[in-house]
Amino acid sequence: MTVTRNIYAYVLASLVLVITIFALLGIWDIIQWEQFIHLFWKAFYSLLIVFFSALIVLFIFSTIYKSPEGEQQSSERKQSAQVE
Q1: Contacts (Cβ under 8 Å, ≥6 apart) of 54
Q2: pTM metric for this prediction
């Protein structure tokens, strides 16, 4: 699960970096303002789509997919609580 989170973190961070580069190019007039606005909104919508899809996948894995180790640990906790 941590590998998936790391991949999502790197993808989202790289998308933020791309948006930052577009912003800097727009400020220094290397690209035209209209091009910048167009590229910014496309990048922003892409970032939102990736973020929400990552959020949904993380929610699915955290609620539906349970690892066998987690189930074994929860059953051990229940048994230790009953002993006490």
Answers
A1: 8, 11, 12
A2: 0.47
Phi/psi region, residue 29 (left: phi>0; alpha: psi -120 to 50; beta: rest), is left
Mean predicted lDDT score pLDDT of the chain = 79
Q: Count H helices, E strands: the chain?
A: 3, 0
Of 3, 5, 7, 8, which Cα lies nearest the Cα of 49? 8
The answer to whether 26 and 33 have CB atoms below 8 angstroms apart is: yes
Taking a C-beta distance cutoff of 8 angstroms, is the pair 39, 31 a contact? yes
25 in helix, strand or coil?
Answer: helix
**Three-state DSSP state, 42:** helix
Q: Assign 83 a pLDDT band (cuts: 50, 70, 90).
A: low
